[in-house]
Structure prediction request, 442 residues.
Amino acid sequence: MKRSVFLLVMSVFILMLQSCEKEVFPIEVTVNNYFNVVDKITETMIHDIFSPPVASRIYVYPNVAAYEIIAQKDSNYVSLSSKIKSLKPIPKASKEVNIKVAAIIAYIEVSKDLVFKDDIITNYADNLFTNWKKINEKEFQSSKEYGIQVANHIKKWSSKDNYKETRTYPKFELYSDDPSRWQPTPPAYMDGIEPYWMKIRPMVLDTSSQFKPKKHPKFSMDEGSDFHKELQEVYTVTNAIRKNGDSSEEVEIAKFWDCNPYVTTSKGHLMIATKKITPGAHWIGITKIASKKSNFNFEESIYANTITSIGIFDAFISCWDEKYRSNLIRPETLINKTIDKNWTPLLQTPPFPEYTSGHSVVSGASATILTAVFGDDFSFSDTTETPYGLPVRNFTSFNAAANEAAISRLYGGIHYRAAIDNGLDQGINLGNYIIFNLKLKR
Prediction:
């Protein structure tokens, strides 16, 4: 009898202990966790003032890391290792790994390796990870270890894309005796940035010159020549816009799509930089807007961002290949020398050669890819620039946005017509090539 009572008491005691133990749940990861991390990377890049080409590199590698993790477990997606020759398959995940947690951790770890100041992303990650660890420490640790393992795999791959080597190449040489050649522009007269970007390993392109655009009109200052007509158009259009005032539609368009991280203003003897996002960052922002409007889940959003960031990355390689081959002089330099020494563009001329227009190429590629992902005639309100004091603009489609981004370069006085039109075609052709070759969604 005593033994039976003892066993009964012990059983009740054990049940009471078990009921007092904290119940463990799987870690819930939302699509907003992913977008918050992307936003933190954008914030970091603005702080560090990365050039547009380099910024495209900082977006693409973390997205590839996150995508490869979700593709391993979700049969709806195809691994990039079967599409990109240089990328080997990532390590296999164990059953204990929370795929979404691992994807976020891999994204963060790769990002931190690509930026200068990682405090912004690290502080966000520390808070996020602390909360996840409280929910399920065992699952978090397994996922973290795997995420870091994949991140190291991608970092090793990224280190072989020739980026580090191009940091050591000689400074870009100017040819001032050739009147058609690019020259540094006011106010900072910076050297041409990333003159060797065409040597960076592409993601999908076979070579950097694969989508070489049509040649720009032959340089000629003879009145009536095609080139001189384009130069005169820049001068005439910008002067007409100025007469309409700062509140005109053309000025709003030019400012909205400026996306120049190198804008500087002089105050006395000081040169002060105005921090802005890059063209690639603007289209990453549009991808987020489209993903949210379409109610894309975690996996779908990473897919959309990955294929778009690949397009942006290869678009910059393609564009920069042409920029430093044609090495064409900017409108500002020629107008000041030959037409009006007091003329200034509405936008500050960025520090690299004119042809083709980087924003046109990147916008053409991005719009083409996003149309393939979300569909044609996808209307959206572009709030990307509101954090930087600019109003919302509404578009009936991604292509409409790309067309506006392209023409903004004429309104801003920083590009000739050929760089805009041919750059847009260059981007569209590149975007279609990426869609055809990267069939990532089954």
Observations:
- Residues 15-20, 266-272 have pLDDT under 50 and may be disordered.
- The longest strand covers residues 264-267.
- Residues 298-326 form the longest helix (29 residues).
